[in-house]
Design goal:
There is one protein chain. This protein has 3 helices and 5 strands; from the N terminus they run H-E-H-E-E-E-E-H. By secondary structure, it is α/β, with parallel strands linked by helices. The termini are far apart.
């Protein structure tokens, strides 16, 4: 019976590799990104912390500007809340939360490694007027999740350099 389990496990692994499946982990990055400095012009500290964490986990050193081989410039981070529906009293009931991030990557000599990139994420959010504290916490959690997703998208785009 254990031989049968071993053979089945081997076949599953073989099929997974044949279809191109691989575990998420370190990506392949250009050597020019090996020592990267992050410049943030109008971004939250949470976004910068997530970007640093994701780059470090991909073996990219976060360094001072003087030691950098590349400059990741987070040009803009913007959050917005758009009313989607109103209740019978005319008060906002459902919102669409938006997170917009613009960034680019340049060399220290200002030549472009990656042109300006735009990331825009949206989430729907139902406002509960009876639970204001919980609703505000849920909104912040959704923004944190969007920042985390945006950071992953940024890292994927850096792999194109």
């Amino acid at each position: 019976m254990s031989t049968l389990k071993f053979v089945l496990l081997f076949l599953i692994i073989l099929l997974a590799q044949a279809c191109g499946f691989h575990l998420a982990g370190e990506g392949e990055f250009s050597d020019e990104l090996s020592n990267t400095h992050i410049q943030a012009f109008s971004s939250s500290r949470d976004l910068i912390r997530l970007v640093e964490k994701n780059l470090r986990s991909n073996q990219i050193n976060i360094v001072n500007e003087d030691d950098a081989t590349a400059l990741l410039r987070i040009l803009n981070e913007e959050t917005e809340r758009v009313v989607l529906t109103l209740d019978s009293d005319g008060k906002a009931r459902e919102f669409e939360l938006l997170l917009k991030i613009n960034f680019d990557v340049i060399r220290p000599d200002n030549s472009i490694l990656l042109n300006k990139q735009n990331i825009e994420l949206k989430r729907d959010f139902v406002f509960d007027k009876n639970d204001l504290l919980g609703t505000n916490e849920e909104e912040q959690e959704l923004y944190n999740e969007m920042r985390n997703d945006a950071t992953k998208l940024m890292v994927y785009r850096l792999q194109t350099i």
